[in-house]
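Incident log entry.

Two folding requests arrived from the same account within the same minute. Monitoring flagged them as a possible duplicate submission, but the sequences differ. Recording both here for audit purposes.

Request one:
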Amino acid sequence: MNFLRWIKGSLFCDLAIDLGTANTLVYLKGRGIIVQEPSIVVVNRANGKPEAVGKRAKEMLGKTPANVLAIKPMRDGVIADFEIAEKMLDYFIKKSTNNRGFLIRPRIVIGIPTGITQVERRAVKDVAMRAKASEVYLVEQPMVASVGAGLPISEPTGNMIVDIGGGTTDIAVISLNGIVFNHSIRIAGNEMDESIIQYIKKKYNLLIGERTAEQVKMQIGSAYPLDEPMTLEIKGRDLKEGIPKTIVVDDQEIREALEDVVSSIIGAIRIALEKTPPELSADIIDRGIVLTGGGALLKNFDKRIREETQLPVFITEDPLATVVLGAGKMLDDLPLLKKISLI
């Protein structure tokens, strides 16, 4: 029985991957999400070999000695460091399949941002092929996110989805298995973190790291006033004295820090709404806007968008996993996958 299970597992190891700027998720057909880890690799400077990948690498962020370097191979949803991205993807694929050898090389479906170039697409495809894929299908993230959210993409009705990732925000109106209109900006979760770093630096002369900024965003960050005020203690380095220092910030300050990024994303949604064909606009009035991606978890972002657009706004059940779950579903519908994948 175990042998038969091994044979089946070795034969059918098709994968869906959300190769994100902040996190990489891997879905194994028949098993679900196997890997959900940060897109970070710590490399030994002397020999170029990875010392840590994913969660362990993130724990080392900002704390590495001179002989090792923490690298984020993805930037704005595309590959910034080809060699490191290949090592990272190879590691995650092996981890998701427990280092088993494949009797049949896997098909891999990868969700990519809508705004990337043909060269950037080729880089993603090449990385997956070198990680021992038999076929690679690239599908635009709003499309697979819509599948993951359970939207009726095959029907002649308009569905608007906003995917706020780490490096990009993708906005698309989908109908009849195609993207009728899309708008992508390279402003998303990472810019939120950077805005918090700069705000704290300017107002308090305190230098904080990326991990601290992300924690601040997740714990008290918001796009619209909260029902109850929140505060958080932040530790960093005083830029005047050069010594460690602790301050306390409140949610109103962090909301102020995030305002430019939040306004840019809402502005992009407005552009998409303005350019949507009238017949589909009527559907969006009824169906509303669906939010997904890690940025959708920013407190009260849905309320802010609802107030600005006067439209219903919904957040998917698991915003961080919606893209990879949609890509996973596509593995069971090969005709549709071939129809909507990019060449």
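Request two (distinct sequence, not a duplicate):
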Amino acid sequence: MLKLLLTIVVSAAIDSTTLFIGDQTDLHLQATFEKTDHVELPVYGESLIPHIEIVDRTVTDSTILADGRIQLNQYLTITSFKDSLFYIPPIAFTANGETLYSEPLSLNVIQPFEMDSALAITPIKDIYRAPVWWWGILRWVLLALCLIGAGAGGWYAWKKWGYLLHRGQQQPVAPEPLRPAEEVALEKLDDIRERKIWQSGRTKEYHTELTDVVREYIGRRFEVQSTEKTSDETLRAMKPLLAEQKELYLGLSRMLQLADLVKFAKWTTTPDENEGCLQTAYLFVKETTPEKTEPETDDKTDSDTQPA
């Protein structure tokens, strides 16, 4: 059942070699080889051989053994609807450009019923239609209507009495004033810096949180929905808004592009790049924070109010 070529071993085995017609069994294909070898399991269509059908198959599974060798496994679920003893020829495996064969197999498919050819063929009987049990249907409909009515009545009573009990007790709560976007962003950046995420080896998480803070700030400060845009779309939208702050725009561009490389291309960043992105985020928020204007005071002296 095994065929050996140097360090490569291939095999094929059937879980049950005797089946009733229409029953199913598994054909196990296996190959064991060194890491330097290249082995491929055979690929079949809908049938193994004529009259033996493949009804299901598993994905090829690879396992590293204790001695460092690799083992490939696949199960083919087969069946047959013909009463016969089948010969399954050796199964071919491809190994390092050559062909290895397993030992041949056999499958005995049995017809479990005896057919009496002496009996006359009878015609097909008409389709039997069961009578409709109207009372049973009506009873279930009435029960469903009662349950729906009881549920609706209970819900109405609960809402009505709850409103009467709590009416006048609840005071309107004034909504909390929305904190400035720059204040929220700087607070989140301080939290990222204190948690030292990239220093703990979580570089992807660090750049994800960092860019999320900047994107949320852009959405509130510039009304550009950056969280719903790609980095390129965000930069195209921000370019005219930062036309007079080219260095700030270039810093934002480098930060977003580096974050994309880390998140999607598994880019390895240096400590200077990680720290530089945080400083860029701080600078971007501070440089784009609108200046607070003090209310003008109109101090008039007594002499201004008195006639000369």
